[in-house]
Please model this.
Amino acid sequence: MPKNNDNPPSPVLVGLMGSGKSSIGRRLAKYLHIPLIDLDDYIVNKAKKSIPEIFTDLGEKAFRDMESAALREVIGQQAVIATGGGAVMREENRALLKSHSPVIWLQASPEFLAKRIDGDTNRPLIAAGETLQKLQHLAEVRYPLYEECADYVLPRGDMKKREALKSILQFLEKT
Ligand code: S3P
Model:
């Protein structure tokens, strides 16, 4: 995998924060011998500000504008693209994602995610208040949107990264 190494797929990973898009994306990129583009890192490099700084100094709308611009710029490149959890919120982003294949949703429960990211100060949307409740709300709003865009849903459950990677590779093998 891939069968034709000259033309590997360019998977885009979507899912809630903490679902492993960047870390599994890194392993996937290594396996496919293509770069990883982490959309948050891409935005941070361009803005020369951290994600919390962008949210505090410029506001969430400015961040979402940067996110949409970044997605437009990178989609279609030969790379694994790890999106931010909120990239599916805008219609224009979903249209881009739906026109691309494969899009892989790392589906993880709010309970699983809360254990992983509770107290993470680099994620403004969960910086204050109760992490589990916030994630439950985000899941309610976003699960249907991830589903709308995804070609493959990987139900992570308690799956380790190694197993998650294997499952994605099995899917890619079939496409
Ligand atoms: C966000 C998720 C973050 C980052 C920003 C907003 C969201 O990315 O883009 O904090 O709206 O869920 P990760 O999913 O990589 O944490």
